[in-house]
Amino acid sequence: MRKIGIVGAGQSGLQLAIGLRKAGHEVVLLSNQSAGQVREGRVTSSQCMFDTALGRERDLGINFWDSECPRIDDVDFTIVSPEHTRALTWAAPLDAPAMSVDQRVKVPRWLGEFSRLEGEVRIQSAGIPELERLAAECELVVVAAGKGDVAGLFERDAERSPFSQPMRALALTYVRGLEPRPDRAAICFNVIPGIGEYFVFPALTTSGPCEIMVFEGLVGGPMDCWSGVQSAAHHLEVSLDILRRFVPWEHARTRNVELTDPNGILAGRFAPTVRKPVARLPSGRPILGMADVVCLNDPITGQGSNNAAKCAAEYLRAILEAGDRAFDVEWMTATFESYWSYARFVTDWTNRMLLPPAPHVLALLSAGVTRPQVARWFANAFDDPRRYFPQFTDPAAAQRFIDDAA
Length: 406
Prior knowledge:
Blueprint: E1 3-7, H1 11-22, E2 26-31, H2 35-39, E3 48-49, H3 51-60, E4 72-80, E5 86-100, H4 103-116, E6 120-123, H5 128-137, E7 140-143, H6 149-152, E8 168-176, E9 186-192, E10 196-205, E11 208-218, H7 232-246, H8 248-251, E12 258-259, E13 265-268, E14 273-274, E15 278-280, E16 286-289, E17 295-296, H9 304-321, H10 329-353, H11 359-367, H12 372-380, H13 395-405
Parallel strand pairs: 1-2, 1-7, 2-6, 4-9, 7-16
Antiparallel strand pairs: 3-5, 4-5, 8-11, 8-12, 8-13, 9-10, 10-11, 14-17, 15-16
């Protein structure tokens, strides 16, 4: 049995901590909030998870919400015209349902499960002194959350980070009372060229089923309008005004909406960034970053929690297979690179989605209208974005794919 410290009690940190405890390792988990504080706090993400990532939770027996969380069965895709009508639209079924469980529901339950497994939880902010103490008592420290001095320990990887500034102004709005889609429940994804993106999907929150509205506005554009919002009611008002102006068919579903709770809102922006996975504390001890700490993607493709689950699963595998090997810098680097062999495709695809689509990408998306195979490919590759390649990067491969689908 080895002693491992984990900083951060989110999707990746808790999933890894529970997996290690179930394997018999001693685990110390640092969280800056208690279960009650998380439950009563503000939403932190939109966390739509697809089947492979959900499978990582099933593997550990921590999929506690399968019977109560709304299923997401389809992807409904629309490109909006300059006149704010549907220039093209199609829908395709997911091979297996996706789900979204509010972190305010998931994290407290997982913290309870970790404690039941006799893991040690320390409620404290993790600055440099706390990391030094943790590294002194543990064989390995994995950082799954961090701001300020801690985040600054991990150097930005310029070769893997093409953007140095935020590409979108982001906002979330958790609501209930949204008129359901007439067919099966779906992620409704709307691309508004030159303005941004809007998508909405069912989820489970602290008060039961809801819908999560996600706004991605181009920086400086008309959807970059959250800085003056002063209240939850005003946030909802701004959300509905965006829908009225740019996606009226989505606005038509909002006649009876209300916020799930005053904390069901979020707004902000960040630059997508890949960081080098190993940092050194002032003492010289190395620590390993994971998930968003070292591979932070824009939420435009909904991959954040999926990446976190897959990163946690890969780190768990590497730790369990390490045996008695030292968790040195070489091991840490190899562990991240093993995860990066998958995550690099997610990052590439996500970054491409932040830019105006190349002609061959637009051709792929347009082909979904008349070629159901193309639409189904695009919808289901959200589960494993490696499937978008080479079509997203190679015009010839894209055309062959479209022709074959005919």
